[in-house]
Amino acid sequence: SVIRAGSYTDELLKTAKSIASPGRGILAIDESNATCGKSQLQMERSSWTVCKMRILYPGIKVDKGLVPLPGSNNESWCQGLDGLASRSAEYYKQGARFAKWRTVVSIPCGPSALAVKEAAWGLARYAAISQDNGLVPIVEPEILLDGDHPIERTLEVAERVWAEVFYYLAENNVVFEGILLKPSMVTPGAEHKEKASPETIAKYTLTMLKRRVPPSVPGIMFLSGGQSEAEATLNLNAMNQSPNPWHVSFSYARALQNTVLKTWQGRPENIEAAQKALLVRAKANSLAQLGKYSA
Ligand code: 13P
Fold this sequence. Notes:
9 helices, alpha/beta, 7-stranded parallel sheet, binds 1,3-dihydroxyacetonephosphate
């Protein structure tokens, strides 16, 4: 299967391993215009000036968004495979070294077997195409936090989703050493009556990963998915209290940006304070990646 990724294999392995190295994570600033609006885009550009000295590898979102999945239970599928090879080749030329494709799975909507299969197949096709063009694919089936279900139900769904994702990744001859995962943490649904502690979330999430993710995968870069900044950091820290087979880290958007955006408020005079706020969150999550964060 290593032959599948062609001339880029060595570089893919090196890129994935460098991103997944001690203390490092990803600042996700790839929201669509509809999600973040013009003002956030401006802030993100100025955050980039703060961050670029430290960026090892730029990455790019390559999916074309979610649309309704006919025949499902009001679920969606992720577009973007058409033309992906030529777009990816162009992104590589422009300097990108990793890619992201976000699809979602909804627990309250089922999830239906059709939606899970479509999500897994799309991710696997995207991953193979990315590797063929020198981009390390971030594989992200986001299991949405919505719902009032207990943590056991999230575990059950996550196990099902990741089983299918790895089945199709293997079927598409994706090189596991040259991918990164972006899972949701295993938590109770956002509307569940009880909150779970960071230790419980770490225990369930690591159980899921150990059952489903081969140790050849170098990095697990969690999304924050609507958790508060503090929760996302504490949960990550709890997962790094004992050794893992992988580099367990973050690829947060909201949990790195919420305070930044509140501080900034669209005013030029607040930019410096907002940049400082970004560095505070980045540092906290870097420590959490090392298991050394204390509130
Ligand atoms: P959140 O951390 O806000 O969930 O976003 C991460 C991300 O990039 C989702 O694709």
